[in-house]
Design brief:
This protein is α+β, with helices and mostly antiparallel strands. It is 36% helix and 30% strand. It has a 4-stranded antiparallel beta sheet. Helix 1 (20-36) runs antiparallel to helix 3 (79-91). It starts with 8 loop residues before the first strand and ends in a 6-residue tail after the last strand.
Length: 107
C-alpha cells in the first residue's frame, strides 16, 4: 500500500454566490464531506480586503485544509462530493479552487 504523505495542504476557494438557497444545500453537505477526508474548515470571508494586485478576489473566499495532498484529491474526486458540488455549480460562479502545500517538515 502506498504511504500517504504527511504534508498538510490548504485549499483556497473563491466564488460569487448567485443563489443563496441552492448554495445552502451545498454548504450543509460540505462539512460532512470535509470530515470524511479529515479536512478542517479554517475560515470564510465575504468582504476580502485586497491590498495590492491586478486580480482582486470577488465574492466569498474560503480556506480549509487536509492532512495530505492525497486526501484533498480523494475528497474532490469522491462521486458523493461531485454530486453535491452540482448545487454549488448551479448556485455560484467558482473563480478558483486551489491546493497550496505546506512547507515540508525540516529534517
Amino acid at each position: 500500500e502506498k504511504i500517504m504523505s504527511e504534508q498538510k495542504v490548504f485549499m483556497i476557494a473563491n466564488l460569487k454566490i448567485n443563489d443563496k438557497d441552492t448554495y445552502q444545500i451545498y454548504e450543509k453537505g460540505f462539512f460532512p464531506m470535509l470530515k470524511k477526508y479529515d479536512g478542517e474548515f479554517v475560515t470564510y470571508d465575504d468582504s476580502v480586503e485586497t491590498f495590492e494586485g491586478s486580480s482582486p478576489l470577488e465574492g466569498r473566499a474560503i480556506i480549509f485544509s487536509f492532512p495530505s495532498p492525497e486526501k484533498a484529491r480523494k475528497w474532490f474526486n469522491d462521486p458523493e462530493y461531485q454530486e453535491l458540488a452540482k448545487n454549488r455549480r448551479t448556485a455560484a460562479e467558482l473563480k478558483n479552487l486551489s491546493m497550496i502545500k505546506s512547507l515540508p517538515a525540516r529534517k
